[in-house]
Amino acid sequence: MYICSTMLNIGQNLEKARKILKNGGLVAIPTETVYGLAANAYNMDAVARIFEVKKRPYFDPLIVHTHGLIEAAEFVESIPEKAVKLAESFWPGPLTLLLSKKDIISDLVTAGMERVAIRVPNHNLTYQLLESIDFPLVAPSANPFGYVSPTTAIHVEKQLGSEIDYILDGGDCHIGIESTIIGFDEDQTVIYRLGGLEKEQVEACVGKVILRPHSSSNPQAPGMLLSHYAPVKKILTGDIVELTKTNPGSKIGILRFQPSLETRNEYPEIILSKTGDLREAAKNLFASLRKMDEMDIDLIIAETVPNKGLGLAINDRLKRASS
Ligand code: TXA
Ligand code: MG
Questions:
Q1: What average pLDDT does the chain have?
Q2: Which numbered ligand comes closest to the C-alpha of 181?
Q3: Dihedrals φ, ψ of 211, to 5°?
Q4: Predicted TM-score (pTM) of this structure
Q5: Distance 172 CA to ligand 1 centre (A)
Q6: Atom 21, ligand 1: which residue's CA is nearest?
Q7: Residue 221 is assigned to a structural domain of this protein
Q8: Looking at the DSSP assignment, which residues form a beta bridge with residue 315?
Q9: Could you tell me if 149 and 282 lie in one domain?
Q10: Which terminus of the chain has a smaller tally of CB atoms within 10 A, N or C?
Q11: Are strands 269-271 and 252-256 parallel, antiparallel or unpaired?
């Protein structure tokens, strides 16, 4: 019997994942948002290897993953009241908090910044893994730097399979878009990255927030570059009819939010949600962009979605992908 060797590196073996991480290896882990590429946050060689494998610049800091608020308290100087409220309401979940770090978190992890990003992911396998180890995990999304994040184990295998030690397969990511990153400026709650936790949910918990979404000029979040989520193909975002008219010579593929009467089957298209549901659309977004990257087209035309709930994060990713 022939067993493809790379397939041996995908599975649900928690013991194997634990051992590899303990010994300084890299394991892709499932979360509810996207797959992460994990390493022991206290092992600097392992952390450095993450930057190498992803071809990620060292100025782009990593999120530290742990399994609860009490554990998080070991890495940070203090936790503002609003942060406690958010953590209690949304951890485990798609919330990342920026908090002032203790020395135990190295400058390599935070790219020299005094705040560390912390998150408790909501995925059964990864949660069990985190509970069973005595060190936190750094885990950026498990994609080469600049490409869209992976939402299945196969996405990870295709791009990084040969360079990492194991992929913990936890199925499709339920949310499909990265966590919402929140920090505090004096008493203000600031969203630095729109993500899987909706702005409305945050505001219902801690009151009004300021949106300071990342750009290359934002020193608070240096890695959140504008073109951060680009697939390989050119992508234009906006009104589909207009964009198809202004790009007559291109081999177009359409990424639609929901079915439309306009559809004339003239171009291949992918629909993010048959029922116009923003959560379903978010879940399908990155896998759809990957599919379109493999289609015989040279231009992706994507329509923007309603700007509320997860629509804010979807539009943000589309905008970045197209710039
Ligand atoms: O949902 C997620 O957050 C996923 C899963 C795997 O947990 N992780 C993720 O990591 O999206 P990554 O590295 O692809 O994106 C993290 C973003 C980066 O843009 C980085 O610049 C920012 O978070 N970040 C990390 N630490 C930071 C810090 N100390 N201060 C400001 N921004 C930070
Ligand atoms: Mg990423």
A1: 92
A2: 1
A3: -95, 120
A4: 0.94
A5: 20
A6: 223
A7: no
A8: none
A9: no
A10: N
A11: parallel
